[in-house]
Design brief:
545 residues, mainly alpha, 0% strand, elongated
């Protein structure tokens, strides 16, 4: 039997045993579920070739493109494959190329026979002039003759005619062996098929092993090799291995959008007794493919399998009905027992329910009281912590305040004495220059800021690091020196102490309100996250314990 399945599958690992039947069936399910994707890729290739064909090519270019389209369609859609061969037959006649004409007629005959149109195939072959044609054309010619004779012999109901056709098929087979290159895959296929048909299964398997070794997993021929392995294992009675290789072949067909399915419906027939749902899924997909391909022959082959599946379904349904009766009877007995137990336990349940509801109500009240107490405790703890911190801050700043005031009193008294001496000495000009200068004021302000910085950092020693942790790296602030703060740090130090009003901060730092607002906004823009709550996060930094 010549090439019917011509597609391929790519496996990351190609197992040589049949131990992975379950996993390969799961993979086949997945491939069928994604069949539309593979068909879409096929349609893209077809459209690309058709687009080239519409480009006004030369006769020779059109012949080559038609042949490529035939090869794409021969296992995808029978009528289209025949149409492109027919176009090439016309081109071959216009070119007066007898070899190409004979080759197109032979391929058309084989394509027609593959869907059961044997009379059409015989008429086409009758028009072939095989004299002087090339070796490949002659091989295709005898391939079609051999296929038709073999198929008609197989399906014939008359023994004498069947035997006669088998002899004719054998004669054509001999011519094919004479023409085939013994190193080619076509020769391996022919030899494997011949040995299998003669029931020489071990020899056929050895040839198939050689054929498999020379066939890449990525080639379209892999499906055919796997299909013959399925046939050989099935004939030997090795059902597990047969299922495995049928599945491998079917996966290959689906991935290459082959519509002339052979492996899949055979696999569906094999597993119909053990996995009826999967079998039905496979045969349904195979049926849809055969309808698309356009072959009555494959439909006739699938119909008995559908009958077997229907019988299996009926058997399974009968078994299910028997179990349903048994289970229903048991369920009725259990229901009666349950009703008696329910009647007895209902009184106890009502009593328990009343007690449980009363207890639950009291538990809910107790739980609600506990939650209120817990919330009050947490609020009280937070208030105490804030009061404790405020007391510490107040004590520290009051001490510094008194120290600064005492220092200012001493300095003012010293200033009074110095001024009095200068007036007595009539040093009015010097006194005027001294009181005109703001140098002393600037020093006093700087000293005030130093006092503020040292006191604040003593209370919150980690403030600078904690503050920078709230900012993005590029927005972080470096103090001018250890124990000192810059303007931005002083603004947010005051916010940490509870000063929210930009006006009060501006008065203390001697800046305009607008400048303070801009400093605050620019710093918040550099927040690592949660800009809106940035100042609230600053207020929570370094809580005093």
């Amino acid at each position: 039997m010549m090439a019917v399945l011509q597609s391929a599958i790519v496996f990351s690992v190609t197992p040589k045993t049949s131990g992975d039947v379950k996993s390969v069936l799961v993979e086949l399910d997945s491939v069928i579920a994604h069949a539309q994707q593979y068909e879409a890729k096929k349609k893209v290739r077809l459209e690309s070739l058709r687009k080239q064909l519409r480009g006004g090519q030369s006769l020779e270019a059109r012949y080559q493109l038609n042949m490529q389209l035939y090869k794409e369609y021969r296992s995808y859609q029978n009528d289209s494959a025949l149409a492109f061969l027919s176009r090439n037959l016309t081109i071959a006649r216009r070119q007066h190329n007898a070899d190409r004409e004979a080759n197109c007629l032979s391929l058309m005959a084989y394509q027609s026979a593959s869907v059961g149109r044997y009379p059409d195939a015989e008429l086409l072959l009758a028009r072939v002039n095989a004299n002087g044609v090339s070796r490949q054309t002659l091989y295709n010619y005898y391939t079609a003759l051999h296929y038709i004779a073999s198929e008609e012999s197989y399906y014939s109901g008359v023994k004498r005619l069947r035997d006669s056709l088998a002899v004719v098929a054998g004669q054509y087979e001999g011519k094919l062996f004479a023409l085939a290159d013994k190193r080619s895959p076509a020769y391996k296929e022919l030899l494997c098929s011949t040995l299998f048909n003669n029931n020489q299964l071990d020899a056929a398997m050895r040839v198939n092993d050689d054929w498999l070794a020379m066939t890449p997993d990525s080639s379209r021929e892999f499906a055919l090799v796997a299909y013959y392995r399925f046939l050989i294992f099935n004939a030997k009675g090795d059902v597990r291995s047969a299922e495995y290789w049928a599945a491998r072949s079917a996966i290959c067909d689906v991935r290459h959008a082959v519509m002339d399915q052979g492996s899949l419906w055979s696999l569906a027939d094999m597993i119909s007794g053990s996995d009826i749902n999967r079998s039905y899924s496979y045969i349904r997909y195979s049926w849809q493919c055969s309808l698309f391909f356009g072959t009555n022959k494959r439909t006739a082959q699938i119909s008995p399998v559908l009958g077997n599946i229907e019988l299996a379904y009926q058997k399974k349904l009968h078994e299910a009905n028997v179990w349903l009766v048994i289970i229903s009877s048991c369920a009725v007995l259990l229901a009666i027992t349950a009703l008696l137990m329910l009647f007895y336990s209902n009184k106890q349940r009502h009593n328990l329910a009343a007690a449980r509801n009363s207890l639950k109500h009291r538990n809910d009240q107790l739980q609600e009281s506990n939650l209120q107490i817990k919330a009050s405790s947490e609020r009280l703890a937070a208030v105490n912590a804030q009061l404790h911190e405020a007391d510490q801050v107040k004590e520290a700043y009051i001490a510094h305040f008194f120290a600064i005031c005492s220092d200012y009193i001493d300095r003012m008294d010293e200033m009074r004495k110095h001024t009095n001496r200068m007036i007595k000495a009539h040093q009015v000009d010097e006194l005027y220059q001294m009181t005109r200068s703001t140098e002393q004021k600037d020093k006093d302000i700087e000293k005030l800021y130093d006092h503020f910085d040292s006191t604040f950092l003593n209370l919150f020693p980690t403030f600078v690091d904690d503050f920078n942790a709230l900012l993005r790296p590029e927005s972080r602030i470096t103090p001018p020196a250890d124990g000192k703060l810059n303007t931005i740090l002083r603004i947010f130090a005051l916010i940490r102490l509870g000063f929210d009003d930009s006006g009060k901060i501006a008065e203390f730092l001697r800046y305009s309100v607008n400048t303070i607002y801009n400093y605050r906004a620019r710093t918040k823009n550099g927040a690592l996250s949660d800009r809106d709550n940035f100042e609230q996060n600053v207020k929570n930094l370094g809580r005093i314990k």
